[in-house]
Amino acid sequence: AMEGGLSARIREGDCAVLKRDEVFKAVSVLRRRKIIFEKQWFYLDNAIGHIYGTTFEVTSGGNLQPKQEVEETTTETKEAGTDNRNIVDDGKSQKLTHDDIKALKDKGIKGQEIVQQLIENSTTFRDKTEFAQDKYIKKKKKKYEAVITIVKPSTRILSTMYYAREPGKINHLRYDTLAQMLTLGNIHAGNKMIVMETCAGLVLGAVMERMGGYGSIIQMYPGGGPVRAATSCFGFPKPFFDNLHEFPLSKVQSLLSGTFTTETLPADPEENALVEEESNGLTEEKQTSLQETEEEPTTEAAMEINPTEEQDTIDINAEDVEFKENKEKENKENVREKQIKQWERRKKLLEAAALLREKNADGLIIASKFHPTPLLLSLLEFVAPSRPFVVYCQYKEPLLECYTKLRERGGVINLKLSETWLRNYQVLPDRSHPKLTMSGGGGYLLSGITVILDKGKSDSSNSEALKVEEPSSKRCRLQDLPC
Amino acid sequence: MSFVEYGDTIKDGDTAIVFLGHESMFPVKVQHGTVTQTKYGVIRHSTDLIGKKYGSKVTCSKGGWVFILHPTPELWTMNLPHRTQILYSTDISIITMMLELKPGSIVCESGTGSGSLSHALIRTVAPTGHLYTVEFHQQRAEKAREEFREHGVEHLVTVTNQDVCKNGFGVSNIADAVFLDIPSPWEAIGHAKSALKAEGGRICSFSPCIEQVQRTCLAMEEYGFTEINTLEILLRVYNVRTISLQIPDLGKAAEDNSSTGFDSSNPSLPGSPCANLQQGTVQFKSGVPLREVVGHTGYLTFATKS
């Protein structure tokens, strides 16, 4: 217990997640920094040193105070009705007015006591059934008891958070679908993985978590650079990034055809693009996802950002007076710094290219906003035989095409197009049932296993094995509809 | 090869998967001098398997061919010898994520059953984590030990033959996560709590019946577990098919060619629309759900010890 105890405590600079009921928010733990979460504001200073999983009460002045376990004051004999035949909704059952409640709050009275007052001043409470009373209390507690729990980030928490708050940023990849991807892809320590995602770095983070810093990952990215806003929320230790490589999608063709060089790399504009894209993905409050074509209800403040990344962004973009004054002096340093950066980037790029050229990756994970077919057909070239691949798409139709094209290409078996449904339950004595709402869609997966592509033979010479795989008899039956 | 590390070539002693076709495969223990019968003929291990690359096409004696695949927990789950009802990859996936398992995690499991989940857990927690699995059925416990040895993962797992409800997991204050798949999980919640680390961890219980879930939830609450959450996950698999639907003859063709509602440039409607619309078809690709699917495996109840 002792050895784990240290890392289980909240430290300054940590990436943590705030939780209230089912709502999450990722934050950086910093002193004297105001946090707004679920219409409450507070500082995290007092949370530092406590164990992850601690529940805090927000006191006046925005301080956090570990919540004391209170014995429920339900010793008094309970009074309850049996049905609601005499309960009339006249809007007058609550004797406290809005102003009364506000006055209680302003006095700094604890949420628990406000709830007690509301119960005492409700004329119908005693006539409600025991279950209805329970529900009433729960509802009021949720509203007036200002408690938050601070938890350690994990794929479970971050994927749930993103799906609830920013589904557009992760292409509506539901957390159970992500869970399937990690399993179908046999992601584990020691793998050499290829990841192509436009899910804010969430899928990358999930893969990194499962690999625990063992093995290597090559992230393929579109545009100027990989987006890793969600990846930074995981708070991975530095060594996890040592074997994380990145390679631009736009260079895949030249790598495959053998014409790839780093000379053609336009470094500068790409670097700017990288910054822009990241800050866009990260900025609080003004998150209008540009790539979204469908109407999304604009969500309020969402993910907090990694402080160091934010700092970078400001350094480059800010145009304050001080900056202008020192511009000349810094220019020379900037140039040198840029050259070093460029050189480092080129070196990393060559490393990534060399890793890909080996064509022996242990798996391929794709989850992007792009059409999956061209991505899969090209990137599979880098994967060793007898290795799994998984492609996510928000829509089923592109995966139908992808399936057909893969069949034409060959070199893959056990192709499976699937989807998972997730149903949550309320489990309470005598009140168990599925929850009222469930998610309508969490996307589709196409998975399979690579095999050695046999170049000599054409499809027509294939023996029974492939015929067995192709459900051709059923296909005929469906086509030959009776006239 | 091992279940936690990929290898390139097939070696003596490996467990390989023989893939015959759509969903048709079986595991084989590779041994010098051994032969395996398939419906496409015989595979001779010494010449057909050993030294070949995983993912190779192997031609059998009758001229038909099969693929030889590297084992993974997922392929093993589809092919393992059943000694009990097993958990499949759909449930395993969400269990793994919701228990927050990763390399280094210490996990307790009961019962071991046929080892379907065990292999997946071991794969995820390797190379620094460990699985403590408890199985009260002596033969099953021994068989599981044997399989773990054959699959090169015995150093990552401890199999204990005892009753988890009476004797617990045999470890305390060590686990990051506990998984229960037993008939009366509520009787093991106390043991689960003491197996988990003092600073906390996650628990999951799998039960087919809602009555079991209710008792388990009550026990979890009694032992101070929080974030109690019950869910169910269902897999939908689609067959990819090309479907043709006939266009009905409404007698309109003779009167008005343009009112069919279909683009006449559609390649599936060639030539003169009049003639073809009568026997015309429209083709499209569809993901067709299977005729029968698994509607329920079990409820998964998760909770946190904090």
Automatic annotation (TrEMBL), chain A:
GO terms for biological process: tRNA methylation. GO terms for cellular component: nucleus; tRNA (m1A) methyltransferase complex. The gene is Trmt6. It is found in: Nucleus. It comes from Pachycephala philippinensis. Residues 62-92, 263-301 are annotated as: Disordered. Belongs to the TRM6/GCD10 family. Keywords: Coiled coil, Methyltransferase, Nucleus, Transferase, tRNA processing. Its main location: nucleus. The keyword Iron-sulfur does not apply. Residues 268-279 have a biased composition (Acidic residues). GO terms for molecular function: methyltransferase activity. Residues 318-346 form a coiled coil. This is tRNA (adenine(58)-N(1))-methyltransferase non-catalytic subunit TRM6.
From TrEMBL, chain B:
GO terms for molecular function: tRNA (adenine(58)-N1)-methyltransferase activity. Its main location: nucleus. Transmembrane segments: none annotated. Keywords: Acetylation, Methyltransferase, Nucleus, S-adenosyl-L-methionine, Transferase, tRNA processing. It is found in: Nucleus. Gene3D superfamilies: 3.10.330.20, Vaccinia Virus protein VP39 (3.40.50.150). SUPFAM superfamilies: S-adenosyl-L-methionine-dependent methyltransferases. Its EC number is 2.1.1.220. PANTHER family: TRNA (ADENINE(58)-N(1))-METHYLTRANSFERASE, TRNA (ADENINE(58)-N(1))-METHYLTRANSFERASE CATALYTIC SUBUNIT TRMT61A. Catalytic subunit of tRNA (adenine-N(1)-)-methyltransferase, which catalyzes the formation of N(1)-methyladenine at position 58 (m1A58) in initiator methionyl-tRNA. Catalytic subunit of mRNA N(1)-methyltransferase complex, which mediates methylation of adenosine residues at the N(1) position of a small subset of mRNAs: N(1) methylation takes place in tRNA T-loop-like structures of mRNAs and is only present at low stoichiometries. Heterotetramer; composed of two copies of TRMT6 and two copies of TRMT61A. This is tRNA (adenine(58)-N(1))-methyltransferase catalytic subunit TRMT61A. It comes from Pachycephala philippinensis (yellow-belllied whistler). The gene is Trmt61a.
